[in-house]
Amino acid sequence: MARSKPKKKKRSAPRKQTPKPQQAEALPRDDGGQASEGLQSTPEVEPSITSILLTVAQVCSLLNLSRSTLDRMAKAGQIPGRVKIGGQVRYHRQVLETWLLDQVQSLPSNPTP
Fold first, then answer.
1. d(CA 67, CA 59)
2. 60 with 96: CB under 8 angstroms?
3. CA Rg, the chain, in Å?
């Protein structure tokens, strides 16, 4: 009986390490050691909340909801202004703000004793 050779294990290619993002250099100080106001750079600039369309994360933050709750309410038709653009979900800010105001106004006011 012929002996078969053991199968060689395939070697996976070594993982390429992605370069770590470099920290922004410290800005020169012109006031004797105190950093100048307005000169500090931020590594990421978040889109303004006043833009026409809001991201899902922005709506969750605004309404203090989890993403799953927002998705469930949107599928049930409980939250208006949902727009899908290029496979990404956005919410129309003005429609959402109007809906929020309507929700507050439709609450029964507490009768005074």
1. 9
2. no
3. 27
